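dumping this here so i dont lose it
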């Protein structure tokens, strides 16, 4: 499968145990997790999780099934409250924030399972992502005053602009649930971008895609990063995708980090190989 060119990126330490791309080192990481952990009863689901994401980095979070990857996403978006540790978003501790507040502060995400409003139009799904940019009051909306129509016009223009990134503007009036699977995945990303994030979390974006759809997705992820100048963190099992576009990769196993580094460093790490393939029998 053809993959987009990914230039080699040098990763450098930041003032902690974390690493980010060298081009971002003069700026504060968009997100930094320090000693993050969560317990469910007596089960330690994630422990001593440290990670930084540069402001324009495409980063990967990988690991075997059940390693705790989606739990980390849920911690970042405050679906779960951490048992210990801290999360800094653009240098600000988000400990007391709710999921909605974290989204407004700059984190958007997609999910393993598609969560579109299937009976709404493609455009209306994108407009839902623009909810935090509505600037008219309840009565203005109920009475359809001029402020309502002005805001609706701006949201329509913004929705079409976002859809055009993935060449989906022609589907604007289509029912979201009628789109092909790959197009629904792209629509989820567009809706997340509508919230104007500084960090986009993609949870298995290539799940269920064929090789040509995955190759297109890789190009689109890079395009999103370059167009919006944002950071992207993805969970993914497709190693061609991960190794093809991710700059820094963090490997999780049984809730703990076992490796961090560039794609080539991760591919050649014995502990990572053992986690995925199992330990070789001696003799």
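and the seq i came up w/
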């Amino acid at each position: 499968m053809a993959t987009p060119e990914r230039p080699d990126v040098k990763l450098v330490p930041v003032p902690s145990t974390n690493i980010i791309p060298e081009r971002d080192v003069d700026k504060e990481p968009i997100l930094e997790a320090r000693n993050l952990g969560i317990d469910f009863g007596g089960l330690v689901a994630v422990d001593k999780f440290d990670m930084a994401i540069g402001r324009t980095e495409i980063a990967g979070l990988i690991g075997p099934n059940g390693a705790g990857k989606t739990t980390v996403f849920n911690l970042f978006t405050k679906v779960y409250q951490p048992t210990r540790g801290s999360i800094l978003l653009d240098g600000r501790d988000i400990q007391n924030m709710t999921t909605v507040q974290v989204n407004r502060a700059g984190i958007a995400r997609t999910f393993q399972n598609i969560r579109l409003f299937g009976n709404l139009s493609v455009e209306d799904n994108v407009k839902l992502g623009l909810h935090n940019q509505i600037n008219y009051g309840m009565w203005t909306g109920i009475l359809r005053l001029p402020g309502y129509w002005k805001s609706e016009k701006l949201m329509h223009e913004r929705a079409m602009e976002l859809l055009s990134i993935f060449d989906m503007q022609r589907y604007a009036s289509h029912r979201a649930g009628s789109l092909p699977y790959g197009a629904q995945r792209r629509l989820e990303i567009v809706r997340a971008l509508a919230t104007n994030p500084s960090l986009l979390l993609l949870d298995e974006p290539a799940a269920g895609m064929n090789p040509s759809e995955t190759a297109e997705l890789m190009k689109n992820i890079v395009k999103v990063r370059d167009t919006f100048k944002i950071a992207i963190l993805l969970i993914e099992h497709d190693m061609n995708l991960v190794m093809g576009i991710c700059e820094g990769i963090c490997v999780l196993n049984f809730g703990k980090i076992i490796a961090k580094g560039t794609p080539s460093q991760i591919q050649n790490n014995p502990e990572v190989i053992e986690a995925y393939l199992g330990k070789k029998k001696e003799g």
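Residues 146-165 form the longest helix (20 residues).
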